[in-house]
């Protein structure tokens, strides 16, 4: 089927219309068909390795996540094939034949996939569920019911039971038990609500894409599908508050910022903006919502997210192993199906008929803290580039004084067009003490110290007895990076790295790093390799210095820009160090900012085993 022609009148920025979304969904579904079992219950996709749950779980995952896409598209030609799979997979669950689904009792991952199955059934009740034979419906319900038990994982997994319960309640199955599961699940995530649009993903500080596409997505979509006005009045405004931040994470070229885990879901990042528009809880107009979503989908498809067979790969653009979690298998990328949620809006909905509008990153320069997270976003309208500064989001397994960091969480900054580097390459956007053998300390857990309109600060413990108080100030494309090292032995070497960049390419940004205080005058260029943006070689700028005294201040200016032939970053700000812990910045436009690096009485960050 040929690609539909672009419509640059309706969609001046992406050219895409609803027809392009339907065409893409159909193409993705047809590409997985050759990998389905004879009756369609399992879809075993090729990949470099199975997930830690094993090949049968991966086959269920391939089925469940593409079933969700088929349900959003609503084409009977696809739904009939998934109906056959429902019957076959639940005929002898737990068996070792070519069709049987694994049981939740023995395969925890099946709980995750039950949510996609249940949501797809809920979306297609009249067209699919109501037309199934009663014995098949009974078998499906029996397979789904264990998902109503308390979650075995204490994070966003609670919402999988919520999603299954919502379908069973609609279908009139075990309604009292389903209602109890809904209440229990919502009560649990309430413990993680921090305000200003943000949940933590469990009893931790792991802030990433799971906030919009899971912790907000499932409660709001459940309330919407149930027609529960009270729930929607509670969770809808929270979604809108999240989107106030989330919409700033999309580059003018369509890319979302790659930070956190599960980056292989790619354009699932568009799910929450679609949902906000469908429920009326969004800061964006319909044209801007479609521009965001179409821009994200095109961004990945235009850069090789599907292989020569039309299959989504385990990576960001093409395959890229370092971003793949152990729980991910070949079917995992198809949670990108959530990004097609806009297809629930009919063709005459304003989401599809309004003219595209620019994204926030294209409208104006922005520096914005994200509520209680310690994250600070920085965007520039001249190039549409987005940078995210991290002073408080930590990986669940992060430990103080560790030897390694999770690249998706521990960097001081992330951007839409570069990095992050992964081991054994030096870490980009990192401040480290260097050991006698030349190895760099890890950052470990960061304790947030607050954020203001133009800044964010944090404290971390790279070595026993040593603390580093860090702050970022941002203005335009300029970043001031300051670190106060407390308690390090005299003469300890330190290193500040900047933004990693590829040597060439039409979207290769320019990375700059300039010493202001505490560092030597030389800017080194560290040779680095591939990132999720593409293959190596890459280069990462670095500054070095040494500590002097029990506390020592290091200050640098950094910049990442898509502007052609940018001026030197040193010209963007005049920085005066006014004391051992204070400095004043005068930006290029004449505005000033004062920074005081005061070390609060914060206990040393405990090891993860003590948390």
Outline the structure in words.
By secondary structure, the protein is of the alpha+beta class. Helices cover 29% and strands 20% of the residues. The strands form five sheets. It has a six-stranded antiparallel β-sheet, with no helix packed on it. A hairpin with a 2-residue loop joins β1 and β2. α6 runs parallel beside α8 (210-226) and α8 runs parallel beside α10. The longest helix has 19 residues, at 55-73.
Please name the defining characteristics of this protein.
611 residues, alpha+beta, 5-stranded antiparallel sheet, 14 helices, 29% helix, globular
Unreliable stretches covering 5 or more consecutive residues: 602-611
Which structural category fits the helices and strands? alpha+beta
Mean pLDDT: 95
Strand content is 15-25%
Helix-residue proportion: 25-40%
Query: How many DSSP-defined strands?
Result: 20
- Number of helical segments? 14
Shape: globular
Quote the distance from N terminus to C terminus: 54 Å
Radius of gyration: 25 Å
Placed side by side, the strands forming the largest sheet appear as: 8-9-10-11-17-14
Sheet with the most strands?
Answer: 6 strands, antiparallel
Q: Layout of helices and strands, plus pairs?
A:
Blueprint lengths: L17 H15 L22 H19 L2 H14 L19 H15 L10 H11 L13 H13 L4 H16 L2 E3 L2 E2 L10 H17 L2 H18 L24 H9 L6 H16 L48 H4 L6 H4 L2 E5 L4 E6 L4 E6 L16 H4 L2 E3 L15 E3 L13 E6 L2 E9 L2 E10 L2 E9 L6 E5 L3 E2 L7 E8 L6 E5 L9 E9 L4 E11 L11 E7 L2 E6 L4 E5 L15
Antiparallel strand pairs: 1-2, 3-4, 4-5, 5-6, 7-12, 8-9, 9-10, 10-11, 11-17, 12-16, 13-16, 14-17, 15-16, 18-19, 19-20
Helix pairs in contact: 1-2, 2-3, 2-4, 4-6, 6-7, 6-8, 8-9, 8-10, 9-10, 10-11
